[in-house]
Automatic annotation (TrEMBL):
<dbReference type="InterPro" id="IPR013154">
    <property type="entry name" value="ADH-like_N"/>
</dbReference>
<dbReference type="GO" id="GO:0016491">
    <property type="term" value="F:oxidoreductase activity"/>
</dbReference>
<protein>
    <submittedName>
        <fullName>Zinc-binding alcohol dehydrogenase family protein</fullName>
    </submittedName>
</protein>
<dbReference type="InterPro" id="IPR020843">
    <property type="entry name" value="ER"/>
</dbReference>
<dbReference type="InterPro" id="IPR036291">
    <property type="entry name" value="NAD(P)-bd_dom_sf"/>
</dbReference>
<dbReference type="Pfam" id="PF13602">
    <property type="entry name" value="ADH_zinc_N_2"/>
</dbReference>
<feature type="domain" description="Enoyl reductase (ER)">
    <location>
        <begin position="10"/>
        <end position="329"/>
    </location>
</feature>
<dbReference type="Pfam" id="PF08240">
    <property type="entry name" value="ADH_N"/>
</dbReference>
<dbReference type="InterPro" id="IPR011032">
    <property type="entry name" value="GroES-like_sf"/>
</dbReference>
<dbReference type="InterPro" id="IPR052585">
    <property type="entry name" value="Lipid_raft_assoc_Zn_ADH"/>
</dbReference>
Length: 331
């Protein structure tokens, strides 16, 4: 089959992803084999491309967010059959979905409702699961005492999904950050009650709007750099959920507020253990909400064909730092 792959980590200027012939995915008993129809593109994949090389003689096939059609189901993958339309995440320990077919654990897959397109379905898994697991303590909703939520990077995929989930499932006041007119407009359309500029004094903007402190900050970008003002915006014993922390981080600004810190990676339930089936259940709810119009589609850019040119264009958007919503490649 055909797949987009690379061997050595590389910058965008030295873009080295190529369309190659590769063996069919090797299925495990709990797997589905899925014919890929669309893939969502995420900043995390661009970061992996810049930093992760293949083992000697190997290659890396990324792609952790997809929609497609089941070709085959393993003997321990109940509830699915050939022909089912599905969306899912895969995991970063295996070959991903930048290929004609992908093998994926059935527990992190859900069916796509008839009214939902492959393109819209492919935009949901990573942003939706990340937002859900970062914001909600469990499937019952927010933890007690969380009434005001600040989303840093509200126009991206995770931020957009988080705002919508909060407004459709809770009574929380939602504040999003954005710095450009178009991203501010996007955040408002996603349901934010207030939009503030993260390039300015965020705590002062919150006070001007009558919000002395927030209970929860969901930070999707620049967390390590922003910890000073994030701490100032949080109430004592507040909560910080961060999706981009890696490497050394000075948590000093948080200490005197007794802040709880939640780091979020959607692949942990597969790679580190846990209730992976819970993610399939959440994906099913997200897909149902999108099909019913309770969640609006977050796709803003659709590129045609799993080709080197479209993937490079997608990575240029991902690395621009100015992406609104989600980029999806239709296969």
């Amino acid at each position: 089959m055909k797949a987009l792959a690379y061997e050595k980590a590389h910058s965008l200027d030295a873009f080295a992803i190529e369309l190659v012939d590769t063996a069919e995915p090797r299925m495990r008993d709990t797997d589905l084999l899925v014919s890929v129809r669309a893939v969502g593109i995420n900043p995390g994949e661009a970061a992996i491309r810049r930093t992760r090389s293949a083992a000697p003689g190997g290659r890396v096939i990324l792609g952790f967010e997809f929609a497609g059609v089941v070709k085959a189901a393993g003997p321990r993958a109940p509830g699915f059959a050939a022909g089912d339309r599905v969306l899912g995440t895969g995991d970063w320990s295996r070959d991903g979905a930048w290929a004609e077919r992908v093998a994926v654990d059935h527990r992190v897959v859900a069916r796509i409702p008839d009214r939902l397109s492959f393109v819209d379905a492919a935009s949901l898994p990573i942003g939706g699961l990340t937002a859900w697991e970062a914001v909600f303590r469990d499937r019952d909703g927010l933890a007690a005492g969380i009434d005001r939520v600040l989303i840093v990077g509200g126009a991206g995929g995770v931020g957009t999904m988080a705002a919508q989930l909060l407004k459709t499932r809770t009574s929380a006041v939602v504040v999003s950050t954005a710095s450009r007119p178009e991203s501010r407009e996007w955040c408002t359309a996603a349901g934010a009650d207030l939009v503030v500029d993260h390039t300015g004094d965020v705590p002062a903007q919150l006070r001007d709007a009558g919000l002395d402190r927030v209970d929860l900050v969901l930070s999707t970008a620049g967390t390590a750099h922003n910890l000073g003002w994030i701490a100032a915006a949080l109430r004592p014993f507040g909560h910080l959920a961060a999706v981009d922390l890696n490497g050394p981080v000075d948590l000093g600004p948080l200490i005197d507020r007794s802040v709880s810190l939640h780091t979020e990676t959607v692949f942990s339930r597969i790679t580190a253990g846990g209730d992976a089936a819970a993610q399939g259940a959440v994906l099913a709810e997200l897909a149902a909400d999108a099909a019913a119009g309770r969640l609006r589609p977050i796709v803003t850019t659709v590129l045609d064909g799993l080709r080197v040119e479209t993937m490079r264009a997608a990575h240029e958007l991902a690395e621009s730092g100015r992406t609104i919503g989600k980029t999806v490649i239709a296969v």
